[in-house]
Amino acid sequence: MDERRTVKVSKYLSKHLRHQPERIGLTLDEAGWVEIDTLIAACAAHGFRFSRQELDHVVATNDKQRFAIEGTRIRASQGHSIEVDLGLPPATPPSHLFHGTVARNLDAIRAEGLRPMNRHAVHLSADRETATRVGARRGRPVVLAVDAGAMHGDGHVFRVSENGVWLTEAVPTRYLRFPESH
């Protein structure tokens, strides 16, 4: 499977497993799972065909491990804009986490902190490199450091997804460290 096809299938799956399952007639369970055969059939019925082997390749090679397979079911690991309960228990974060963004968002972040926007949680990375890659998807990246240890100590709840993304409801400005040049 070539890289362009892998990316195309991954984006299609992300759209429909994280944001708009109803567009192709899918109904996810409360935890975001759907039967793989149901997913493949719904995609095919809406003009986007792929094989189980292609699906397995996308899941196995996705650099962010966006999808999880359990038995005969699949779901997105995190990043949903639809209501799902991933069943992730609270977790103690490392002392610092990171968030990748772009300069045009900094004024709003300084005023309001990090908010989940159209998702259920703010996404944070355990390392600066991952946050840089996340920010670079929207332009020249800016990486913010999050004092996760202090947040956790102050009662903020963190969870970590199956693919290592740290999730929290919001990050107030007082826990953020902005780069000097911004």
UniProtKB/TrEMBL annotation:
Keyword line: NAD, Transferase
Catalytic EC class: transferase
Gene3D superfamilies: 3.20.170.30, RNA 2'-phosphotransferase, Tpt1/KptA family, N-terminal domain
Superkingdom of origin organism: Bacteria
Recorded coiled-coil stretches: none
UniProt KW Transferase keyword: yes
GO MF: transferase activity
EC number: 2.7.1.-
InterPro entries for this protein: Ptrans_KptA/Tpt1 (IPR002745), RNA_2'-PTrans_C (IPR042081), RNA_2'-PTrans_KptA (IPR022928), RNA_2'-PTrans_N (IPR042080)
Cited Pfam families: PTS_2-RNA
Matching PANTHER family: PUTATIVE PHOSPHOTRANSFERASE (PTHR12684), TRNA 2'-PHOSPHOTRANSFERASE 1 (PTHR12684:SF2)
Family the entry assigns: Belongs to the KptA/TPT1 family.
Function of the molecule: Removes the 2'-phosphate from RNA via an intermediate in which the phosphate is ADP-ribosylated by NAD followed by a presumed transesterification to release the RNA and generate ADP-ribose 1''-2''-cyclic phosphate (APPR>P). May function as an ADP-ribosylase.
Protein name: Probable RNA 2'-phosphotransferase
Annotated source species: Streptomyces hokutonensis
Taxonomic lineage: Bacteria, Bacillati, Actinomycetota, Actinomycetes, Kitasatosporales
